[in-house]
Amino acid sequence: MKKQLRAALGNPRLLLFIDRLLFSVGPAINQPSTFTLLIAPPGAGNIGDQAMVESFLENTPGDIRIICHGQQDVSIPDQHAERTRVIVLPGLIYGHLLPHLRSIRVFRRLLGRAQSLAITGADIMDGAYNWQASTNRANLAWLAAEAGVAVRILGFSWNGRAHPQAVTALKRATAAGVQLCLRDPVSADRARADGLANVTDVADIVFAARTVNFATVSRLLYSLPAQCDYALVNASGLIGRAPGQIEGYVRIIRELQYQGLQVILLPHVCRPGGDDLPVCREIHQALNDPRIILIDQLLSPSEIRGLTAGATLTVTGRMHLAIMSLYSGVPAITLATQGKVEGMMRLFGAEFLCVEPRPDFSERIVAVIQQILSRPDDLRQHLHSKLPAVRRLASRNFDGPQQEPINQEELSCAYD
Fold first, then answer.
1. Structure pTM?
2. Cβ-contact 303, 268 below 8 angstroms
3. Are 50 and 74 in contact, with CB atoms under 8 Å apart?
4. Which domains are delineated in the chain?
């Protein structure tokens, strides 16, 4: 009974009804605009979420207020600390009625001083993980737009099987003027097919990141010979424990070693419900090979970009590790889930780098490894040729809908 009552009190329709009443009464909330407001992704042990927040900071001038669920969700780099404040509103997106009421009051006051509102869309807008949270984010966008604040949902994917309430909420938000930034052409096509308006084609905001840290890489890899060629291997905690996955990764790593590459096992998410580190440790133990390096800590996004920049290739179950590899033109063979990776690879004309996590995934990845290493310079040149257009697409998350058109010829050529 308690569980059912809690679910009823957390229903997005009820929360929106209460929010509309709250926003319709009391004095006007508009005050002189002083900062940009960002609703952060869940974060807390996810390098990809942290990378999106840091890219937003690097590309957004002035004072910034970041709303998050918990104090540990985001870490603010020192260079942005003076102009950034983190505001914890635990009930805004995930809470039921009472904690939501406390949080929505603060959110309303913040909107009164916000120049604009940005919501980190990522892969959390279509309801695939948590339809209530997806719907709540869209409802917050609508409330802000109705209050006269410019709202944008930054670089997100759309899986083609979106939850009906998430679709309805986003339709309402776009009718109020909310701008939707879809981070790949497949997602943009799906969003338009679902009747969403105000769709802008972009790339993931992490492609617009500006910092790369090589110092930590030198420290972590000090034991390797100079000019050592290495490959990064990540096993996602979401899919890495499926039957045959550990054995499959062992097969993949043995192939990388056969090809003369030093292998580095790298977790990308370390939090309950999808922790990569235990899976990476299990793979490390199964190999029982002292030559294989296991990085047993989460690095910062700039450190990850420093590490990927020196790699020959990456094998990963995490999309943002693939993004931070492609950021430097490094091939990233990616286990694709929810249809969110294929569109990103289409931007590079490299859809063959997507591999579904089926029972035969290791054999298919081995074949792609052999294909890449047969002509490594050709693929790197191809990926580098796509980067300028992809980075311009990423900048659209920040520049507004009226941008210089992208030369489609830069994106249309596929790797042969």
1. 0.94
2. no
3. yes
4. 2-201 (3.40.50), 215-387 (3.40.50.2000)
